[in-house]
Amino acid sequence: MKTVIQRVKSASVTVDGHLISSIAKGVLVFAAVGKDDTPKEAESMASKVLKVKLWEDDQGGKWKKNVQEINGEVLCVSQFTLLASTKKGNKPDFHKSAPAVKGKELYDHFLARVRAQYSEDRVKDGVFQAMMDVGLVNDGPVGVDYRCIDEAVTIEIETNPAEMKNPTDFAAFTDELEDGNFKGHVHKTFDLPASLME
C-alpha cells in the first residue's frame, strides 16, 4: 500500500458537483492498494498516517506533533494511480494496483482502522472509483510519500575476522608477500537481487 500525505489548511471532495466531504486543518491522504497487499499493510499504513509528525509544537519545534495531537482532521481519498509505472514508456502502467474488488476491501479496512485509532467524526472519505474533484489548500507546502513497509538492507561486518594469509590465494603473488602477509588490493564483485533496487 502506498500513500501520499499532504498537510493542509483545508481540503474537500466533490463528485458530480455535489460536496461529499470537507475538512479544515489536518491531512489529506491519497491512498493506493497494491495487488499483493494484505490487511496487515493496511493496518500499518493507518498507524503511520496518524503518527507522522508534520506540525510544530508550542515552543516552535519543527516536526513535533501529529494530526491527533493538534486535533486535526483527516480526509482519505482512494487513488490507485499512485502505483503507476512508466518504466517501459510514457503511458502509465497500473499492473501493480489491486483489482477493484480487492482494492475496495483493503481501502475500506484501512479507512476503518484510521477511524478506530482516532475518532470517526474526525476522519472523512471520498467515493471509491468515482471521478472526484479534490480541492486543497496545502499548508507549507508539506507532503510525504509512504509505503506500507519500510525496507532496509542490513550488512553484517565481522569485526574480529580470522587471520588470512594472502586472501586472494593467487600463487602468482607469492613474491609480493612480506613476512607471510600479502599487501595489495583485493577486488570483489557482489551480485545483489534486482528487488533491492526497487
From TrEMBL:
<keyword id="KW-0378">Hydrolase</keyword>
<keyword id="KW-0963">Cytoplasm</keyword>
<dbReference type="InterPro" id="IPR023509">
    <property type="entry name" value="DTD-like_sf"/>
</dbReference>
<dbReference type="GO" id="GO:0005737">
    <property type="term" value="C:cytoplasm"/>
</dbReference>
<comment type="similarity">
    <text>Belongs to the DTD family.</text>
</comment>
<dbReference type="Pfam" id="PF02580">
    <property type="entry name" value="Tyr_Deacylase"/>
</dbReference>
<protein>
    <recommendedName>
        <fullName>D-aminoacyl-tRNA deacylase</fullName>
        <ecNumber>3.1.1.96</ecNumber>
    </recommendedName>
</protein>
<dbReference type="GO" id="GO:0000049">
    <property type="term" value="F:tRNA binding"/>
</dbReference>
<keyword id="KW-0694">RNA-binding</keyword>
<dbReference type="GO" id="GO:0106026">
    <property type="term" value="F:Gly-tRNA(Ala) deacylase activity"/>
</dbReference>
<keyword id="KW-0820">tRNA-binding</keyword>
<dbReference type="InterPro" id="IPR003732">
    <property type="entry name" value="Daa-tRNA_deacyls_DTD"/>
</dbReference>
<dbReference type="GO" id="GO:0051500">
    <property type="term" value="F:D-tyrosyl-tRNA(Tyr) deacylase activity"/>
</dbReference>
